[in-house]
Amino acid sequence: MTGPGIAGQAPAAPTPAPAAPAIGAPATIELDHVSRWYGNVVAVNDISFRLGPGVTGLLGPNGAGKSTIIHMLAGLLRPSAGSVAVGGVSAWRNPAAYRRIGLVPERETVYAFLSGFEFARMNARLQRLPDPDAAAEQAIHTVDLEAAAHRPIGTYSKGMRQRAKIAGALVHEPSILLLDEPFNGMDPRQRLHMIALLRTMAAEGRTILFSSHILEEVERLADEVLVIHAGRLAASGDFRQIRRLMTDRPHTFRIRSGDDRRLAAALVADAAVFGVELTDGRLTVRVGDYAVFTGLLPRVARAAGISLYEVAPTDDSLESVFAYLVRR
Amino acid sequence: MTVVATLVEVTLRGLLSRRRTVLLVLLAALPVVLALLARLGGGADAAPVLDALVVRTVLPLTALVLGTAAIGSELEDGTAVYLLVKPIGRLEIVVAKVAVSAVLTSALAGASALLTGLVLGGGARDLDATLAITPAVIVGGVVYSAAFVTVSVFTTRALVVGLVYTIIWEGILAGILAGTKVFSIREAVLGIAGGLAPGAIDGGLEPVQAVALSAIVIVGGTLLAARRLAVQEVRGGD
Question: What does the angle CA B5 – CA B9 – CA B14 come to, to the nearest 5 degrees?
Fold first, then answer.
């Protein structure tokens, strides 16, 4: 399911956004057959998609190419092939585009000697806002950083630093917000707050694209999901569909029990179990539905009077989930 | 204007918050201390002392540390991204960076030259030399800053490139191959000083050449750095 077969997933038409600063072109993000390589290494491989207002999650394991995509959108990297447009224009060699774009980079380094407020104000001044102080104050309020606003960023926790970066990125009320791993280092409370904040901003008609390697983050925030694996677009669309794709795939469990042979025989009788394998005293079970099997296994074991010592899913890493999606 | 002022403020605070910058004050004070010792030990001619200690040492080293830190370190640690994703001209960024490095370098090296010369004392010729070298060093601070800021936009090894340039090119080659002097900022500084106090300073370019080289490096370097910054790629985490 690679390639551009994702048209119509987002409102591509220039829908007038309620509170967004409506300047010229609609707040769309567009990649058209974009590739990017570094020397011989392909980081992004022929990706096309088009997004409109709302929250979209860019999901993929580390090193999948998420940052490269975000940096190309932000005009910090030139695509090796294809074209990138943000709000209808390319930001590469076009600083004027930054009036409508806010970027929260992944790297943690921020000017440690500035306070959060000063950092937001610096961003406001560089955006040539008429009242930088008021804009900075508003941004600090939005990310809930008032208590530490006048302390140097060098003294901040990771989560506070992240919020300071976000305050700097939204100080000019951009219609397009790009966030690279925005939840890194945030505690659960901060995460919830940030999710609420981004949802509010999306409801105002902004286009928000954030990257993450954590499924749950994307699930809780994104309306639409783009799954990236090894530089390719592995899947895209509504999160529930993708979730189903991920949970419907066959799962493999490694089991250690009091009597592996008898347990294997008992399990293989069940329709939920696709196959069992007993090699070198190790029992491996292939099942269709994760949830059904995890409910079934203890019942079968108890009925047969077998003790379970160890039950481990062998392929539940996100990496294998993505690899599975790419192979489809 | 607020844009350049903001860039200047952030750069200045960034440089002043580094310990390295504080060490530069000690470096600038060193010639003054040595001059005091020389004065107590019987005195020395101002021109050669200022050439060796300030023009050859304090000036290029200060500019190298500040010029490469002004933007090179930001490109390296990623904070430059916050400047790059703004609707501002790349030239404005470079001008602000060169300005901050130049003001700090010129202040430190200029003060070092003036105080060293005054402490050394000597005759009218020595005073003339001091009063000519000091403004020349101030100009030199701008020239070196433009040069090193430019280098640091092009390479992450700007410190090494700058050291090789100052020590090998300006220090050794200019002495052996006279033709290389035309591309030596040190010779330009001496040339400007020579123009201000004819007869008090030996060596250096012709004053006209010196001013021309300085102007070319300041304007050309700044424009070149801005052009390069416009196509600066910043890689992400993957």
Answer: 150
Q: A185-214: per-residue pLDDT in tens?
A: 888 888 888 899 999 999 999 999 999 988
When mean pLDDT is compared across A17-21, A308-312, B113-117, the lowest value belongs to A17-21
Residues of A whose CB is below 8 A from B77:
107, 109
Band (A312; pLDDT cuts 50, 70, 90):
confident
Contact at CB, A64 and B238, closer than 8 angstroms: yes
Chain B residues within 8 A of A128 when measuring between CB atoms? 2-3, 87-88
Identify the closest residue of chain A to B229 by CA–CA distance.
Answer: A93
Contacts made by residues A34-43, CB under 8 angstroms, sequence distance 24+: A34/A69, A34/A72, A34/A79, A34/A81, A34/A82, A34/A83, A34/A84, A35/A79, A35/A80, A35/A81, A35/A82, A36/A65, A36/A68, A36/A72, A36/A77, A36/A79, A36/A80, A36/A81, A37/A80, A38/B235, A42/A231, A43/A68, A43/A231, A43/B238
C-beta atoms of B77 and A109 within 8 A: yes
With 70 as the cut, is the pLDDT of residue A321 above it? no
CB contact under 8 A, B85 and A38: no
DSSP helix/strand/coil, A36 = strand
CA dist list (Å): A290 to A239, A275, A287, B141, B144: 18, 14, 7, 69, 67
C-alpha distances in angstroms, A75 versus A72, A228, B221?
5, 20, 24
Is the pLDDT at A158 greater than 80? The verdict is yes
Residue whose token pair is 């286009």: A207
Q: CA separation (Å) from A323 to A239, A275, B205?
A: 18, 21, 67
The answer to whether residue A9 scores a pLDDT higher than 50 is no
Residue B21: the pLDDT is 84
Residue with the two structure tokens 């108890």: A302
DSSP secondary structure, B121-139, as one string: ---HHHHHHHHHHHHHHHH
Is the ipTM value over 0.90, yes or no? yes
Question: Would the CB atoms of A67 and B10 count as touching at under 8 Å?
Answer: no
- pTM for the model stands at 0.84
Distance, in Å, from the CA atom of B92 to the CA atom of B225, rounded to the nearest integer, reads: 11
Chain A: closest CA distance from residue B30 (Å): 29
CA–CA separation, B160 and B101 (whole Å): 18
The rounded mean pLDDT for chain B is: 94
Lowest mean pLDDT among B48-57, B103-112, B176-185: B176-185
Question: What average pLDDT does the segment A122-131 reach?
Answer: 97
Chain B positions contacting chain A at CB under 8 Å are 2-3, 6-7, 10, 13-14, 17, 77-79, 81-90, 230-238
